[in-house]
Amino acid sequence: MAVSHPAPMLIADQRGLDFLNSVATPWGDPIEWIGDGEAFLGWLETAGLISAEVAATIRKDAPPGALDAVAAQARTLREWFRRFVLLHAGRRIEPDTLAELRPLNRLLGRDEAFGVIEAADADSVLDQHASGLRWHWHRRWRTPDALLLPVAQAMADLVCEADFTQVKNCEGPTCTMLFLDTSKGHGRRWCSMSVCGNRAKQARHRAGSSGGKKR
Q1: Mind giving me the DSSP string for the chain?
Q2: pLDDT for 118-142, tens place per residue?
Q3: What integer is the mean pLDDT of 1-29?
Q4: What residue ranges do the domains of the chain occupy?
Q5: Which of 126-140, 149-163, 174-188, 195-209 is predicted with the least confidence, judged by mean pLDDT?
């Protein structure tokens, strides 16, 4: 019987970190959002890494057990990448880390993405002199293992494009969620103001009320 979870918390401002947050403790008890193949498909679709059409096609064509197997691979990949991120969070990624990223490069090397020229959406052509065409990337989804590729791309984007000095852990006492601090002044402290931020506010209020009582 499938376990019911709240919707994934895509709060990291970067999909590679959101992938790490696909197991987390935002409310005290661990939540695993990619515990099986169907859950992995659902997480990828919610995160915008695959379309509903891709999810439906892979769900229809996958051999028995294949989706659960790729979900297990995703969980292994996630924990490998978590070790890398936690080791380097808060400082600039240097070229000498490249050897540590060999497993990710091997995965990226399996990609079958290709570019196609397509008609552009009229609303997306802002310049009246611009072409009505666009260059768009597609991927061949030959096997369920290809579901790991958009995740790998998000991880590579984090390593190569993001400011790793602003990769932070939520300051909630039991929260394990990571995020990229893109706030002005880089003062973000919480995974979400509605979760850990609100808990911290309530704790301060209780502490203030307790301190103000006469003894």
Answers
A1: -PPP-PPP---SSSHHHHHHTTEE-TTSS-EETTSSHHHHHHHHHHTTSS-HHHHHHHHHHPPTTHHHHHHHHHHHHHHHHHHHHHHHTTS---GGGGGGGHHHHHHHTT--EEEEEEEPPGGG--STTS-SEEEEEEE---SGGGGHHHHHHHHHHHHHHS-GGGEEE--STT---EEE--SGGG----S-IIIIIHHHHHHHHHHHHHHTS--
A2: 998 766 655 555 678 888 889 999 9
A3: 88
A4: 15-210
A5: 195-209
Burial of 89 (0-12, 13-18, 19+ CB in 10 A): middle
Q: What confidence tens digit (pLDDT) does each residue in 13-25 have? A: 999 999 999 999 8
Whose CA is closest to 20, among 111, 67, 87?
Answer: 87
Residue 1: what pLDDT? Answer: 46
Residue 117 burial by Cβ neighbours in a 10 Å radius (0-12, 13-18, 19+): exposed
Query: pTM for the whole thing?
Result: 0.87
- Please state which CATH class domain 15-210 belongs to: mainly alpha
Q: How far apart are CA 117 and CA 136, in angstroms?
A: 6
